[in-house]
Amino acid sequence: MATGRADSGNEARAGGPGPETETSPTEPGTGTPAAARATAAPPDHEPDRAPEPVPDPGPGPVPDPEPDTASASAPTPASASVTGPAADPEQGPATGPTPDSATGPTPDSATDPAPDSATDPAPDPADTHIVSAPAETSAGRAEPPSGPAEAPRHATEEPPGAVPESGAGTRRGPVGRIWRHPRLRWPKRALLALVLVLLVPSLAAGIALRVNYAGDPGPGTATRNRDALWLGHAWVDGRKKDADVTSLAARLRSTGIRDLYVHAGPLEHDGTLPRTAYPRAAWLIAAVHRELPGVRVQAWLGDALASEGPNGLRMERAGTRKAVVGSTRQILAAGFDGVHFDFEPLHSGNRDYLSLLDDLREVTRSRHVPLSVAAHQIDPLPAAHAVRGSLTNHPKWWSQWYFGQVARRVDQIALMSYDTALPMESLYGGYVAQQTSLALEVTPKSTDLLMGLPFFHEDDMSHHESAETVTAAVRGARLGLSRTDRHRDRFGLALYVDFAATEADWTAYREGWVR
Predict the structure, then answer these.
(1) Which of 20, 87, 433, 513 is in Cβ range 3.0-4.6 Å of 479 for a Cys bridge?
(2) Torsions phi, psi of 367, nearest 5?
């Protein structure tokens, strides 16, 4: 908004308008007007001149007008013959006393001689003072001013005690002047357009997620006994004991968990797997089979990829992919019931990964064990991964097409529907519902689709524990399932991770999903 500066304007002239011309009365006995006598004045007197504009005196008393020396050389008819009050030409004959009749003779009375023009020179305009006209009282009598006249207030000066209006008459600072510079007009418009491009879709997406979380899940949206749980490395490196397996079995018997993804890696950057990484694997597998018949113990393998930095596993190398296949044979030989891979960050469209899955599928099928993978989230908006990837070099999401390509090559796919950076529980629940629907649309009926739940508690830029709750995730998954494929059998939830879960997380899972 324009905050401009108030114009100061010209000050009002202190002298006001010029003197008005009055008709002189006729001189008694001669019939000659008084004005004629003024023109017949001696030649050494200056003729009448038009009054000069009165200069702006500024503060201080107002100067007297310059006396007319020609007309003052002889008494006027009014001063010579009239002994009563002077008549006002606009109001007619006066009936009362003159303003100063009570205190003394007026300057125009007959007792005062006319000023001597020869001895009294005309006053210098610079030394004169214009006296303000006396105020008239209610009785018609003018009162003399009690002190020097006040100078007129400046046009922009505020009266005493006045509060200046907000934004009026204020000076813009340097930032304000720079911001309103004409050269910034187009950059400001471009900035506004960029804000709108980013803000409007975000607001629309937020509203859509909130709406997606509304309503009630349909009947029959409960566990299919195909759920999974990620377990930490402590289960295979010797830190866990028989008592721990007994406690775990007691917790899992009343749930729908069928698969355990036990961390047995990670892989080396060249794709190999040290045998020393899982020294207690055989003990764990036997203990779980004893305590929980029918529950499968899968080896959880993976590594950080060099897709966004110099360090990590390079999947584009054929030798590295071959080493990963060899590590899979090695871990299955140790007695595991399947293998679960998690490579991150894995960009959408990576065909080297699809080629690796084709090779791994041959190995797992030959041993009649499942091949399982952890998958990135699906684009919440069309081409979201491409836009984010061009801006941050971290696409985060997969396209829906790529998610379907991965799902066709595995027996299980677990969508990691956490670390969304969403700030509210309702938005997160709506997001999980959306992800569930998107995944169901492209996952083959022969593949188990699991929705990953956050069984951990962190609070950072990517994860807000107050928003990403188990309750919201379970409800969102049920909403997505009931809206897209309510009768689908190969569907479940995957809980990440056992060592960070709380009793409240387990309760929310049982009450919301196991029922």
Answers:
(1) 433
(2) -105, 0
Q: CB of 498 within 8 A of CB of 505?
A: no
Q: What is the mean pLDDT of residues 43-56?
A: 50
Position 56 scores a pLDDT of 52
| pLDDT tens column, 249-307 | 999 999 999 999 999 999 999 999 999 999 999 999 999 999 999 999 999 999 999 99
2-35 residues labelled b (16+ CB within 10 A) or e (exposed): eeeeeeeeeeeebbeeeeeeeebbebeeeeeebe
Which pTM value belongs to this model? 0.65
Provide the pLDDT confidence category of residue 53 given band limits of 50, 70 and 90. Answer: low
Q: Cα(156)–Cα(171) distance, rounded to whole angstroms?
A: 14
| CA–CA separation, 290 and 277 (whole Å) | 23
Q: How far apart are CA 22 and CA 33, in angstroms?
A: 12
> Which of 29-43, 148-162, 180-194, 487-501 has the least mean pLDDT?
29-43
What does DSSP assign to residue 19?
A: P
Within a 10 A sphere around the Cβ of 222, how many other Cβ atoms? 15
Q: Beta strand 491-496 with 371-375: parallel, antiparallel or unpaired?
A: unpaired
Measuring CA to CA, which residue among 412, 442, 417 is closest to residue 341? Answer: 412
* Whole-number CA gyration radius for the chain: 51
Residues pairing with 29 in the sheet: none
For 124-136, the pLDDT digits (tens) are: 544 444 444 444 4
Q: Please answer whether residues 404 and 440 qualify as being in contact, where contact means their C-beta atoms are separated by less than 8 angstroms.
A: no
Question: How much is the pLDDT for 46?
Answer: 45
Please tell me what DSSP assigns to residue 91: T
Answer whether 422's CB lies under 8 Å from 428's CB: yes
- Secondary structure of residue 260 in the 3-state scheme: strand
Mean pLDDT of 68-88: 41
Q: Calculate helix-pair angle for 425-442, 185-212, nearest 10 degrees.
A: 80
Using alpha carbons, select from 434, 298, 303 the residue that is nearest to residue 378: 434
What proportions of the chain, in percent to the nearest 5, are helix, strand and coil? 35, 10, 55
Contact predicate 495/453, CB 8 Å: yes
Tokens of 286: 């036997």
**How many whole angstroms separate alpha carbon 126 and alpha carbon 372?**
105
Amino acid identity, position 511:
E
Q: How confident is the model over 203-216, as pLDDT tens digits?
A: 877 898 899 999 99
d(CA 75, CA 490): 127
User: Is the bond leading into 55 cis (omega within 30 degrees of zero)?
Assistant: no
